C-alpha cells in the first residue's frame, strides 16, 4: 500500500532538481499541473514548496478574464526579484495565457519558456534547450493529446479528493469565451485510462473523484478505430460509480444545452454520484443567451432545472453568471435576477463581463455597458445570491447529512470540515476522526456559506 501511495503523491527529495509550481484558473488547470509534475518527476525533478529552493519556476496560467491575466503579470514581477537573487533560475509560463499570448509573453524579460496546454510532454526538452540556447516556446495545439497514459502526480492537501480530466478543449464557441482558442478542439479521453486512474486512486485511499471537462455532457468516446463501440458521459459516469459504493463521484461542468435525462437517471440510480449539478446559465435573458451563442433559451434552462428536481430530489444546483455582457439592458439584467429567484440556486460564481481579444464578441459586439453599471448589476446579483444561499442553508437546519471529512477547519484546529453530497461545507466538533472518514452530522445552524453541525 505504502509503495503504491508514493506513485500518486508528489516526491519531496532534496537530492533532485527542484521545481516550484504555481497554478491559477480552473480545476482542469490544477489537474494539468499534476500532469506536468508527473512529466517532470520522470525527468529528475522534485516539487518544492518555496520558490527560493527552486531552479525551475512554472506558472500555470488562466486567460478567462483580464483580471486573471493581470494577476499573473504581477506574479512575473515577483519572479523577476527572485531571478535577481538567483540568476540561474528558469521561469516558464504554461497554460491558457501562454497559449493566448505566445511570443508576446516570451518577450517578457523574466520569461525563459512558454508552453501551451498541449505541449507539456515537450517540457523536459524545452527546459534543457533554455540552458543551452536561451528562450524556448511550444504553443502547438493538438487534436489528439489527452495525456491519457500519464498518471498525474497529486499535489492536493489531504489525499481524499482528486481530479480526473476526461476530455480537453471545447467546441462550443460561446461568443465571450477564450477557452476554445486557448485549449483547442474538444477531444475525449480513452475511458479505460480514466477507469484505471480512478481505481488506482481508490486503492490509494482517495474517497472522492471529480470528472472534469469544459462540457462533460459532450464526452463521446468513439472506441478503437474499426469498432462500433461508443461511450457517452452517462455510460462513463456509471462505470466510475460502479468502482465502489464508498467512492464519491462528482463532475463539472454540465452544459444546459447538452445535459441529458440519461445523465440524471444515472445519478438517481447511484447514491455515490454526488447530488450536485453545476449548470452555468450566464444570463436569464433570451436576447443575451442568443448573443452569447449558448444555443439554448431561458425556458429550456428552466425545463432542465425542473427535470433535475423531478429525477433527483435533494440535488443542489449551482451556476455561473456574467453581468454586463455586450448590449445588456436593465430589462435583460432583471431577467437574470428573476431567473435566479425562480431557480433559487444553492451557490453561484458571478462575474462582470471582460472582453477577450479575438473572441466573437470582441470582433462583432461593442463592450458598451459602462464599468460602473456592470459593477452595480454584479453587486445586485451577489446580494440576491447571498440571500438565496442563506435560504438554501436554512432549509437544511434539522436535517442529517453524511459528510466526507476533508480535515481540520481553517479557522480552528478543534473543528473538522467536510462536505455533504450536495457540496455544502459543514463545520463540526469531532475527535477521533480523520480526513477521508465518513460521518453523519446534524445541521444546527448556518451562515450563507457554511452549515454548522454536530455529530448525529
Ligand atoms: N465550460 C464552462 C465554463 C468555463 S469558464 C461552461 O461552459 O460553463 C468559467 C466561467 O467563466 C464561465 O461559466 C463564465 O461565467 C465565465 N466567463 C467566461 N468568459 C468570460 C468573460 N469573457 N468575462 C466574464 N466571465 C467569463
Ligand atoms: Fe467557454 Fe462556452 Fe466552452 Fe464553456 S462551453 S469553455 S463558456 S466556449
Ligand atoms: Fe482559465 Fe484556461 Fe481554465 S482560461 S478557466 S485555465 S481553461
How would you describe the overall organization of this protein?
This protein has 456 residues and is of the alpha/beta class. It has three domains: 2-138, 3-Layer(aba) Sandwich (Rossmann fold), CATH 3.40.50; 161-394, pyruvate-formate lyase- activating enzyme (Alpha-Beta Horseshoe), CATH 3.80.30.20; 400-455, Nucleic acid-binding proteins (OB fold (Dihydrolipoamide Acetyltransferase, E2P)). 36% of the residues lie in helices and 22% in strands. Helix 9 (233-241) runs parallel beside helix 10 and helix 13 runs parallel beside helix 15. The longest helix has 24 residues, at 371-394. The protein starts with a helix and ends with a strand. Iron/sulfur cluster binds next to helix 7.
The proportion of residues forming helix, as a percent range, comes to 25-40%
What overall geometry do the principal axes of the alpha carbons give? globular
Question: What integer is the average pLDDT?
Answer: 95
Q: What is the C-alpha radius of gyration, as a whole number of Å?
A: 22 Å
Strand content: 15-25%
CATH names the topology of the largest domain as pyruvate-formate lyase- activating enzyme
